[in-house]
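Risk register update: the risk that structure generation would not scale has been downgraded. Supporting records follow, first protein first.
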Amino acid sequence: MGHLDHAALGWLTPALSYAMACTGAALGLRCTVRALAATGRTRRNWLLTAASAIGTGIWTMHFVAMLGFRVSGTDIRYDVPLTLVSLLVVCAGVFAVGYGRNRVRALLLGGLTTGLGVASMHYLGMAAMRLHGEVSYDPVRVGLSVLIAVAAATAALWAALNTESALAVTLASLIMGAAVSSMHYTGMFAVSVRVTPSGEALPGATAMQFIFPLAVGLGSYLFLTSAFVALSPTAGEHQAPAPARQQPAGSTTP
């Protein structure tokens, strides 16, 4: 059996991956709050931004954490197309909440869909891993990781429906980031690898060749989108009369 090291780079990758999960969750929640206050095309655009933010944050969290993953006795490569597919499967649940008429049913369906999307993203990402050996999983820990993913997604979507203040969204995103990280490492602790030494070159790209540049690019997208959302006026500000928006705080009209 190969020895698995989940933090070969120390606390850097767990801490950075947690920060990316929190950033994606916070941005996704803020966009979902904006979407629920909008209608038509505006709602759709906010939901698209929310879904991409949550999906990007969780995907980046997973693969930043994987930068610190090592297996003794073998190199690791990643199948590039399958890794990209894993980025696309996590976003559908946001739309179930955004467009569902029955909020309870939409929340349950959205939480289940998003949670299964998170778990699918994780295990698709693991399926994209190439090494000299055979990967197996503890089914109990796999099941636990899926339950954590569904619970985390449901809690996050509930927060999007029931929190509006920046402080509440921040707390919700910190909790969701912790839950997503817990899901990831629960899934990773379900992994065991039987190494088969070989001199053959592995197909695919190394983490530094592919995952690191893509994670940096997606992380930049998250931070730039966060700035855009922070500077965008809310629905209430859009509806306010122009003189009221321009009037300095504390001043009175004559």
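Supporting record for the second protein:
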Amino acid sequence: MNIFVIGAHGKVGKILVNELSQKGNVKVFAGLRTKSQFNAYESISNVTPVLFDLTSQANDMAKVLKDNQIDQVVFSAGSGGDTGDDQTLVIDLDGAIKSMIATQSAGIDRYVMVSSMGSDDRKIWDNSNLHGYFIAKHYADEYLKNNTDLKYTILRPASLTDDNSDGKVELNPNDLYHRTVSRANVAKFIVAVLDNDKTTNKEYAFSDGNKSIQDAF
């Protein structure tokens, strides 16, 4: 199984690549924007760093995926909290949609989107300082569901922390916006999703919790 992680230089992406690299039946391709980021993965067995620029054209992205015979794609990229709405649109919306088009063009049907809590809830957008971010995430999710034939899974984790993972979560908590989830648990959740065909064409909002990820499914 060849898995491509878009945004492998991000905090969740790095943890995810390391988690996947420990699975014996998986070869991991770390999608990175610049060659200067390659050194983070060159010493890790089972991981191949690959140039993947979300500002490039969809057909260029498709060629990268096809050349590496990818079976599953994870989108875990983001423009970052320090950029303005223009870069959020370029990466989190346009880049995401181009990666979906590229995935289909390459003949791949499995795509996991790491979205955001609240991307499906307009009520919280105006009261946040991330209005543009939520809009970008919302319409990327909508495009994935309604304008592609991909076997998707959309993840909406709670506020992210750098805590250690205990592998336990809660799905759809009523107080999601007041909860947190460790990036390490998000990575474990992604791995579990990729291993479980029953998670296709589904959406999961989750936080740290008391159930093992498998039991939560």
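Helices lie at 11-21, 58-67, 85-105, 131-146, 183-194, 213-216. On this basis the risk owner (M.S.) recommends closing the item.
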